[in-house]
Design a protein that fits this description.
The chain has about 450 residues and is an alpha/beta fold. The protein has 15 helices and 20 strands. The chain is globular. The protein binds pyridoxal-5'-phosphate.
């Protein structure tokens, strides 16, 4: 028998006491250990997920969930893809780690593949998205330094332009270009020289841009910020100003890249390229791997010892990433992302016509956001009850990041469950009227 300890949100397994026959509650130690020993950085749901298969995950009671969050855009192949399982088994028996002091069999070929699909020339492998972002900012500072800059002083061109409503990660560099105050302010002073521009506001961009900036960093589709796509006008102006001032244009595609839009990269709908592309999340199918992809011009400034990592680009992880990219091709997953994305959007549009608290549907392919006029968090809780994993970002936007392998039947299953969720959830506080209008204001109240 199981009962829920409402106060702590901890699952108790209730057993009959031998002596008194009074049920004596026994705590699930996996949850109590987590409560007691983990740094409380997340508000975790009070149950234990144990395994997954395809687009489904299961908890320790055997309950099945349709996974439309995919580990926050990581599990693009769902769970336990047979080819990923096979490559991890094979390579873990050969070499998990070797060291970047030596070549391994997969790092070079993976770099070649990433260069081919992105139009970039060179690659640095990191362990996460935030490290890729930090590395890119370091590259920008390096490229901007000239012979007339004193080696122990900031270069004349050291400033960084970032976007309001952005999210680039949690390390010092990445959090310095992330606008959300609750992620930044407790850690001040941050990396100096960062200026924020209103997302998609060309006039603001033009008024702030000058030749003191070494980099402009932007998400091609803002993910944490509530699924806001960059406009072509803003991209084109950012590209031309960056080229004019010798500033590096950094596209953070950590959440929206590697196929999620139905293209390998979201920026590939524009006619020009960035100088640096950041990827991570799905790259090694759930194993931690990030990468900085860049041009020969940037790479020509780098020499051994300037930057590095112990773990980044190990053989097991690079072999898995090569398999991930090969599966995308052989299973024609970009086409699947586009087709399922259209079906999902059409279904969501029908639901928006029925439920007037859905204000807007945003995104493309399998990165979609539904902005609500009411608090979105209770919908996440009801979705769990219905056996669905989704997430709410910025309190009012429900975020959908299903795996690239979802089938038409699973899209239909999602829409059926999601309609129940929309109907059954108790409706609460209204969003402030300005919330939809200003991603900048939303940034002040962001919740992961
Ligand atoms: C756009 C974007 N950039 C950077 C990051 C940070 O990546 P990581 O959590 O792997 O450090 C994230 C994570 O959510 C992201 O969405």
């Amino acid at each position: 028998m199981r009962a829920l300890n409402q106060k702590k949100g901890i699952t108790r397994v209730v057993q009959k006491s031998k002596r008194s026959r009074i049920p004596a509650p026994k705590l699930d130690t996996r949850l109590t250990d987590a409560e007691q020993f983990l740094l409380p950085t997340y508000k975790r749901q009070p149950f234990v997920l144990t395994h997954g298969r395809g687009a489904y995950v299961y908890d320790s009671t055997g309950k099945k969930y349709l996974d439309f969050l995919g580990g926050i855009a990581v599990n693009a192949l769902g769970h336990a893809h047979p080819r990923i399982v096979r490559v991890i088994r094979r390579e873990s028996a050969r070499a998990i780690h070797l060291s970047n002091l030596y070549h391994n069999a997969y790092q070079g070929p993976l770099a070649r593949k990433l260069a081919e699909i992105s139009g970039m020339d060179r690659v640095f492998f990191s362990n996460s998205g935030t490290e890729a972002a930090d590395g890119a900012l370091k590259l920008a500072r390096l490229c901007a330094r000239t012979a007339s800059d004193a080696p122990d002083k900031p270069a004349a061109k050291h400033r960084i332009l970032a976007m309001h409503n952005s999210f680039h990660g949690r390390t010092f560099g990445a959090v310095s270009v992330t606008s959300t105050e609750k992620y930044r302010l407790p850690f001040a002073p941050l990396v100096p020289g960062v200026e924020f521009v209103d997302f998609n506001d060309v006039a603001d961009l033009e008024s702030k841009f000058d030749n003191t900036f070494c980099a402009i960093i932007l998400e091609t589709i803002q993910g944490e910020g509530g699924i806001h796509a960059l406009t072509e006008a803003f991209w084109n102006r950012a590209r031309s100003l960056a080229s004019q001032h010798g500033t590096l244009l950094i596209a953070d595609e950590i959440q929206c890249g590697l196929g999620r839009t139905g293209r390998y990269f979201a920026y590939q709908k524009f006619s020009s390229k960035p100088d640096i592309v950041l990827v991570a999340k799905p790259l090694a199918a759930g194993l931690p791997l990030g990468a900085i992809l860049t041009t020969e011009a940037v790479a020509s400034r780098v020499s051994p010892g300037l930057h590095g990592t112990t773990f980044g680009g190990g053989p097991l992880i690079c072999a898995t990433a090569l398999e991930f990219l090969s599966i995308i091709e052989s299973e024609k997953l970009l086409a699947n992302v586009r087709a399922r994305g259209v079906e999902l959007r059409e279904g969501l549009a029908k639901l928006a016509a029925k439920f007037d608290f859905i204000r807007e549907i945003r995104g493309e392919g399998l990165i979609l956001g539904l902005e609500l006029s009411i608090d979105g968090n209770p919908f996440v809780a009801e979705a769990l009850r219905q056996g669905l994993l989704i997430n709410c970002t910025h309190d009012f936007t429900l975020r959908l990041l299903p795996p690239f392998i979802i089938t038409r039947a699973q899209v239909r299953e999602f829409l059926r469950l999601f309609e129940l969720v929309l109907a059954k959830t108790p409706k609460s506080i209204s969003a402030p009227a300005q919330a939809t209008a200003s991603p900048r204001r939303l940034a002040q109240s962001a919740a992961r």
